[in-house]
């Protein structure tokens, strides 16, 4: 499905000259991600506090390069699983596994002797 828009010319002295602007088509993966985002927003409406978290997560992942298809597909599959959890009537909050910013790296214990 290609979309085109008709724009009126803003060139002075050239009345009635219109321009056709073609919008870029989304790839199949982009369409799937956009659909997933809309599904998340719909599912999150029924649960207070979920919408800002959903938007933040998608905005953060929007920085991923479009050429990193493997990572995007991984996040898409993970998102599908999280959506199913969100749709579960028993789900009250979303959890996350993240490393605290001030966490120290694991150190080996000194040998006792």
Explained architecture:
The protein contains 3 helices and 2 strands. Helix content is 42%, strand content 9%. The relative contact order is 0.10. The chain is mainly α. The longest helix has 19 residues, at 69-87. The protein is elongated.
Q: What attributes does this structure have?
A:
single chain, 113 residues, mainly alpha, 2 strands, 42% helix, 9% strand
Radius of gyration: 23 Å
The count of strands amounts to 2
- Give the percentage of residues in beta strands: 5-15%
Shape: elongated
Q: Report the helical percentage.
A: 40-55%
Task: Summarize the main sheet.
Answer: 2 strands, antiparallel
Q: How would you name the oligomeric state of the polypeptide chains in this document? A: single chain
* Helix-strand string: EEHHH
The chain-level mean pLDDT equals 76
Low-confidence segments = 4-9
Helical stretch tally: 3
Largest sheet, order of strands side by side? 1-2
* Alpha-beta content class: mainly alpha
* N→C terminal distance: 73 Å
Topology at a glance:
Elements lengths: L3 E5 L9 E5 L5 H17 L5 H12 L7 H19 L26
Antiparallel strand pairs: 1-2
A few lines on this structure:
The protein has helices at about 30-45, 50-60, 70-85; strands at about 5-10, 20.
């Amino acid at each position: 499905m290609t979309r085109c828009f008709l724009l009126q010319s803003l060139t002075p002295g050239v009345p009635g000259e219109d321009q056709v602007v073609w919008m870029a088509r989304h790839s199949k993966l982009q369409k799937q991600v956009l659909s997933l985002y809309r599904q998340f927003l719909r599912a999150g409406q029924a649960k207070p506090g979920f919408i800002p978290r959903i938007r933040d997560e998608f905005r953060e992942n929007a920085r991923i390069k479009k050429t990193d298809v493997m990572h995007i597909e991984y996040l898409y599959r993970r998102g599908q699983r999280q959506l199913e959890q969100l749709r579960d009537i028993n789900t009250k909050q979303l959890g996350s596994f993240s490393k605290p910013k001030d966490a120290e790296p694991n150190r080996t214990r000194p040998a006792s002797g």
